[in-house]
Amino acid sequence: MKLILGMGCDRNVSQQTLATAVDKALAQIDQSTDSVVALASIDKKNDEAALLALAEQHAWPLHFFSAAQLAEIDVPSPSAVVLKYMDTPSVAEAAAILAAKASMKDLLVEKYKYLGADGKNATVSIVRGQ
User: Fold this and answer.
1) Where along the chain do its domains lie?
2) Shortest CA distance to 103 belongs to which of 68, 59, 72?
3) Which residues are within 8 A (CB) of 127 and not within 5 positions of it... i.e. 6 or more apart?
4) Global model pTM greater than 0.85
5) What would be the CATH architecture of the domain defined by 3-128?
6) In the chain, fewer beta carbons within 10 Å around the N or the C end?
């Protein structure tokens, strides 16, 4: 199975927090990082060191989308907090769907939230790729 991960995170999150969030989200559907073919997020995170490092570590292509593009995707778990700070109600779910060129029926993990030991949050959504 080919999987695309959508990720949202707090600024200056650790790579360990992101990696743990990914592993725990994948475990929910009995999958591993071996099935992941791409990572996606909002363009405001295109300088997030841990996100860039995670993609590089796994050689995952990293796709970024604007808030306007993400806001066009109707998601099952919109967030008022994300809307306030990112100008879109969803980052992880919408980014995964856009990167996969998929629809809601391909969403395998809606929004897995993880609070890392660094006190930072990470959110992972998983979509089945084509």
Assistant:
1) 3-128
2) 72
3) 3, 4, 6, 96, 97, 99, 100, 102, 106, 107, 108
4) yes
5) 2-Layer Sandwich (3.30)
6) C
Q: Which helix (H) or strand (E) holds 103?
A: none
AA identity, residue 63: H
Nearest to 8 by CA among 33, 43, 34, 36: 43
In tens, the pLDDT along 116-130 reads: 999 999 999 999 987
pLDDT in tens, 81-103: 999 999 999 999 999 999 999 99
**Strand-pair partners of 112:** 124
Give the pair of three-digit tokens for residue 69. Answer: 């593009």
Work out the number of other CB atoms within 10 angstroms of the CB of residue 110: 17
* Closest CA relative to residue 18, chosen from 27, 9, 26: 9
In the 3-class helix/strand/coil scheme, how is 28-96 assigned residue by residue?
A: CCCCCHHHEEEEEEEHHHCCCHHHHHHHHHHCCCEEEECHHHHHCCCCCCCCHHHHHHHCCCCCHHHHH
